[in-house]
Specification:
single chain, alpha+beta, Ribosomal Protein L30, Chain: A, 3-stranded antiparallel beta sheet, 2 helices, globular
């Protein structure tokens, strides 16, 4: 089964968030506000997104 892709957008700044949240955002490859990245749609990346839902948005 081929895995799809998810598009993730950084909608809020991680400046005043705990260090773990900053590391998750960096791990996803997001550096600037409103930046959109494409990542594989697997459990690992879905878990990272679910840890910081207040900072990210999944773009359709």
């Amino acid at each position: 089964m081929a895995e799809g892709k998810i598009r993730i957008q950084l909608i809020r700044s991680p400046i005043c968030t705990p260090e773990k949240h900053k590391k998750i955002v960096r791990g996803l490859g997001l550096r600037k506000l409103n930046q959109v990245v494409e990542r594989p749609d697997n459990a690992g990346f879905r878990g990272m997104v679910s840890k910081v839902p207040h900072l990210l948005k999944i773009v359709e």
